Automatic annotation (TrEMBL):
Residues 436-505 form the HAT C-terminal dimerisation domain. It comes from the Eukaryota. PANTHER family: PTHR45749, ZINC FINGER MYM-TYPE PROTEIN 1-LIKE-RELATED. Residues 322-354 are annotated as: Disordered. One of its GO terms (molecular function) is protein dimerization activity. This is HAT C-terminal dimerisation domain-containing protein. It comes from Callosobruchus maculatus (Southern cowpea weevil). Signal peptide: none annotated. Residues 322-337 have a biased composition (Polar residues). InterPro entries: HATC_C_dom, RNaseH-like_sf.
Length: 537
């Protein structure tokens, strides 16, 4: 594959743009010639995607284990897509291959799981081969994740649901609050507020006049950490932001700017907004702490269990405080913020908000428990931690081994124990420069496959599963590439093929005879007026 349009097309573009205006006008106005047939272009894209899918299918047949990763994403036109990625090992290294975009018949567990299972069944015949599944996205996660992963696990019993490193833990706020309309509204308003200031240097300057320092985070930053810094900034500087908006409303000359400033002023002064802003200001620091703890390379199953326990206790304390008394809004003594509602209505509103706050706390806790319910793969990785080899030589980690066999019965416990004991005792493995699972797999497969058969199987499982920790961030996630591509792409008829060409360039360039295979398939897709197939007489 090449980024070039081709010699003929490049020459035509050059001549029409630089040399011959008459030729340019003729080509642009000609009815019978457009330089490139849309139909032929689409047929070539279809052929490329089919060849790519065939090769990915061949790779997956040869590999021992497969993991599936699905994520909700949108293009620049906000068209919903469910993207499917497969993770497996090729030549001793993990790869993540984009498969396609899916459009489920519904956003419930049945529709999503049926859509995913239909694709998996085309590629994975052995029910023991699929060992992990990971999902993300508000529409996928909200109220449906238990159903989705259980439906998949009914057919593929070893496909444990794991939290993928590409699914940021602090996005739990998005999923946990997606069913509450007030929460969706407040975060949408916070995003709009940041966009208002970040898209105009003049408005940003007005804000800085009142803040006397750097203003609110940009809207792009908000998408990455789901308004954590925004909630804190607005909570701490609400009065200054109100002052900036009032000045913008007075001085602006464009009607749209005046309308936006006035709308955000009313939002910032609303009692409901103040309540939820205060509530999330209490919640967000605990989410940030948990996220930072889970992203540490040195984390393990025990640390994750303890971190989640600390988080649950912190959120539980906030929940108890809500149940006992109303969360105090900021500026509670400022009676000029909003007109006082009637006592009956005010009491009803407070009671309803208190009830909703408790439900949000419960949703956050449920989200965390669901995501990290299974951490067996971290126990596996503990068995091959290089820095623990001297300790494990003296005292074999029997508990870790028992847990590993319980989670992955495909492992032969007796043989694995023997092989691990030899591994821990051998000095050359301790002194090796390869200090991760991929490096160790390469060492063992180089002439030691028979001696360390079960350890190699163990390493393949560890490498195939999407990691929980940031160790896997050293390679750029395929999901991130796809999302980056979609953020700059409108809905296309051949979106699967275009995404494949954009995100799988390295794979295609390393694919032997890719162009020849595409041309051969293109020639045989349908009967054509011209015979494109060369026949030797």
């Amino acid at each position: 594959m090449s980024n070039s349009k081709g010699i003929f097309r490049e020459l035509i573009d050059y001549f029409t743009a630089e040399l011959d205006k008459t030729l340019k006008d003729h080509i642009e106005s000609a009815l019978g010639y457009k330089g490139l047939s849309k139909t032929i272009q689409n047929e070539f894209l279809d052929a490329m995607l089919r060849v790519y899918h065939q090769q990915v299918g061949n790779e997956m047949k040869k590999t021992d284990y497969v993991a599936v990763i699905a994520d909700e994403t949108t293009d620049v036109s906000n068209q919903f897509q469910l993207v499917l990625v497969f993770r497996y090992i090729v030549d001793g290294r993990p790869v993540e291959r984009f498969w396609k975009f899916l459009l489920p018949s519904g956003h419930d567990s049945n529709g999503i799981s049926a859509c995913i299972l239909n694709e998996i069944s085309l590629l994975v015949d052995d029910p023991e081969k699929l060992i992990a599944q990971s999902y993300d996205g508000a529409a996928v996660m909200s109220g449906a994740i238990n159903g989705v992963h259980k439906h998949v696990q009914e057919r593929y019993p070893r496909a444990n649901f794991v939290h993928c490193y590409a699914h940021q833990a602090n996005l739990i706020m998005s999923h946990a609050t997606s069913s509450n309309s007030d929460c969706r509204i407040i975060f949408a308003n916070l995003t709009g507020l940041c966009t208002l200031f970040s898209t105009s240097p003049q408005r940003a300057a007005r804000l800085e006049e009142f803040l006397h320092k750097k203003g609110l985070p940009s809207s792009s930053k908000i998408k990455r950490n789901f308004n954590s810094s925004t909630v804190n900034a607005v909570y701490e500087h609400r009065e200054e932001i109100i002052g900036a908006l009032e000045k913008i409303e007075r001085e602006a000359t464009f009607q749209i700017t005046i309308q936006q400033a006035g709308a955000h002023l009313r939002i910032l002064e609303a009692e409901s907004f103040i309540y939820w802003l205060t509530f999330f200001h209490k919640i967000m620091p605990h989410v940030d702490i948990l996220f930072n703890q889970l992203q540490k390379v040195t984390t393990d199953a025990l640390k994750i269990h303890n971190n989640i326990g600390d988080f649950e206790r912190a959120i539980g304390k906030i929940r108890s405080e809500i149940g006992n008394t109303e969360t105090q809004p900021v500026d509670q003594n400022n009676s000029e913020l909003t007109p006082p509602p009637s006592k009956r209505r005010r009491t009803a509103d407070k009671s309803e908000r208190r009830k909703q706050s408790i439900e949000v706390c419960d949703s956050i806790l449920l989200e965390i428990k669901t995501r990290f319910q299974f951490i067996g793969h971290l126990i596996l990785s503990k068995l091959v931690s290089f820095n623990q080899f001297p300790l494990f030589e003296k005292e074999f980690p029997e508990d870790f081994l028992k847990e590993a066999i319980k989670f992955y019965p495909c492992l032969n416990g007796g043989r694995l124990r023997t092989e691990l004991s030899v591994l821990y005792a051998r000095e050359e493995f301790r002194q090796s420069s390869e200090t991760n699972a991929v490096g160790l797999l390469g060492l063992l497969q180089d002439g030691l496959s028979n001696s360390f058969h079960e350890v190699i199987k163990l390493l393949k499982i560890i490498i195939t599963i999407p990691m929980t920790t940031s160790e896997a961030e050293r390679q750029f996630s395929r999901l991130k590439r796809i999302k980056t591509f979609l953020r700059n792409t409108m809905k296309e008829d051949r979106l699967n093929a275009l995404t494949m060409l954009s995100c799988e360039k390295e794979f295609i360039n390393d694919f032997p005879n890719f162009n020849e295979k595409v041309i051969e398939l293109f020639c045989t897709l349908k009967t054509r007026k011209m015979d494109f197939i060369y026949r030797q007489l």
